[in-house]
Amino acid sequence: MTGSHKTPDAPHHGRHDRPGMQQIHDPYVARQKLSEPSACRECGVVWHKGRWQWLSRPPGAHDVLCPACARVRDRVPAGYLTVVGDFLEGHLDEVLSLIHNHEAREKSEHPLQRIMATEGAEGGGLLITTSDAHLARGLGEALHHAYRGELDYHYVEDEATLRVHWQRD
Questions:
Q1: Strand pairing of 115-120 and 79-84?
Q2: Residue extents of the structural domains in the chain
Q3: Would the pLDDT of 162 be above 80?
């Protein structure tokens, strides 16, 4: 069963997009608790008090690779956002600014929510890959809130992957 949802023109959306879905195993989420403190050798994010935080690297911190950096290294996104439509052609800089500003806000509070890549989508538009499914969803909702259009998203069966599609002609 694939969870799918098409969003009407409404500014806020609930978290009811995966009814009845079982917990999906994400291989990038640690199965056991990390030793504290731990710090990512790539980006420097610190595991402290049970969560990843942007802190100075504590002395004696264990050297680890955070889930976001592991996804980037392996090229395995958790979220895909496709942005298409005639609107994009005339507003590309504005749309990219909104996307990067939203990512910066999210990443400051949730260090594992990062844009992995922004590239041209097959058939035109943009394809944005993210290290966290929540970020892909949040980016789509930010676009929808700012510019309306059509927002559609679905989780890939048996994977911790979200595909979000935003379109405005």
A1: unpaired
A2: 38-65, 74-167
A3: yes
